[in-house]
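Forum: Protein Structure Q&A
Topic: Joint prediction for protein chains with partners

I've read a bunch of threads here and the consensus seems to be that you should model interacting components together rather than docking separate models afterwards. I'd like to see that in practice. Below is the full input, 638 residues plus whatever partners are listed. Could one of the regulars post the assembled result?
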Amino acid sequence: MILAIDVGGTKMAAGLVAGDGTVTASARVPTPQGADATTLWKTLVELIEPLTEGVKGVEGVGVGCGGPMAWPDGEVSPLNMPGWRGFPLRARLAGRFPGSPVRLHNDAICLAAAEHWKGAGQGSADMLGMVVSTGVGGGLILNGRLINGGTGNAGHIGHVVVEPDGGPRCGCGGHGCLEAIARGPALTAWAVEQGWEPKHPGTGVYLEDRAVTARALAADARAGDPVAVRAMRRAGRALGIAIASATHLCDLDLVTIGGGLSQAGVPLFGPLEEALREHARVEFARRVKVMPASLGQEAGLIGAAALLLAGESYWTERR
Amino acid sequence: MILAIDVGGTKMAAGLVAGDGTVTASARVPTPQGADATTLWKTLVELIEPLTEGVKGVEGVGVGCGGPMAWPDGEVSPLNMPGWRGFPLRARLAGRFPGSPVRLHNDAICLAAAEHWKGAGQGSADMLGMVVSTGVGGGLILNGRLINGGTGNAGHIGHVVVEPDGGPRCGCGGHGCLEAIARGPALTAWAVEQGWEPKHPGTGVYLEDRAVTARALAADARAGDPVAVRAMRRAGRALGIAIASATHLCDLDLVTIGGGLSQAGVPLFGPLEEALREHARVEFARRVKVMPASLGQEAGLIGAAALLLAGESYWTERR
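Posted by a regular:
Agreed with the consensus. Here's the joint model:
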């Protein structure tokens, strides 16, 4: 039995995962906002303790965590958890489970591994697993193996440049990055700036709650609100252009898209496909397919467990 | 001793390569223009025969060839050699050297392997080896291993999108691709359109000869001709943007640039660095270095030989 952990700025989740990838037990808790390092660690320990209490021998611990991080050492500094800066998460967990291997990777990379192992990417040799949510990230699987890159950050499609001249400023300090256009908050901010007021009934929208807002924007786009349609179109095209670039560079079969915005439907995926087909014209690139991720909420745990349960595909030590 | 072969639209080259990567003998011949399949094959045979005559046992044959091709089968249809369409180059060579392994890959990928094995990329774990010439191509090395991609085309940075809106048409059918802006002929055509007339003394320029023309444009840019400077700046910035995207996506240490345009000096590399640093802002991406390729004319042969002599790094069977 593997203990899988998924740590993000909004929630922490943990679960027990069997050899076949089934999550047999799980729990989650909101990440305490503005908490210091000790409080964050205590919250995590209190989450995993009841799960592992009755278990005879945790065979390994797999962790997905928000970046950036020092990889593979597992010292984490998640962007949205200021209390952890260089926090030795891997070492702390190793101390708690002596004798068990602990493997930690970026959360977006774990999601890609999960989709390849048990989700929409099964059977693909060369894929990019994307997440489009508060940020835009991803993980690369090439020739059936997870690619780490020099610092464990390969697959980071959010900073592929899609609007080099006059594109919006990005949180990274650059401009015109995919993330600066297609992440949920950027998308809704742009729509509000263009005069959008959430009006689709029944979504109970609060502009302060960014996840709800992006959902409302998608609903309004489906209902035909012209600004919402334009906002989704802008993000969809940016995604299609970045995917075309990634397909040419990495010779991909498949791109899976998870995260909140992957629920947006035709208003996002229509323009995405249109821009992708416009730009992915070299013969080998035309085969690429784009599919929604299929694993839902448990994907993060399944991917973290895959680092151990299918390590021959999803874990490579640095050469 | 390995027989290495490098087949392109302009020339065919062949050489004997020792285990340490030293080219001990070589020959080259212009590729007969407009020739049919048989003539092309005969030209190649006449090139390799004198080289291998005295050699006791060719241990293997490594081939770099212009794409596209069916890989790893080695049926080639080089863009600039219309006489070969689906030509079974690998099988033909295997028939000529019975018992010897024959490995064939895209020429740009062989150049990347060469630079990583014996050139400017030695010691880099994660690099992109680029060629900027009549076309723009490349090969990816990640975690010290050559990446093939699903069809043997990984590294094809020429079709990364750098000017999505209103960018120039590309030979691939798309628009705004790096290649459409930065390949030599596109660069000089743009300059001529802007009123450039080659004037740098001593370059003996003929506008019909594209290689000479790109060299003359670079020389004029170094001499301060304003249109030539703008042309190089435009190509350099496009290269920098594409390299930033590739660095984020593949978490690279190093990009090497070979091919004729890599000789253009500061007028190209200045704007390249400027655009790269403007866009490669995420912490892990800042470490990337751009260097000229170092192997020169023999790189193609060395890379083709590397497919066999260092196969553990540069050759992977499909899973």
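Chain B has a mean pLDDT of 93.
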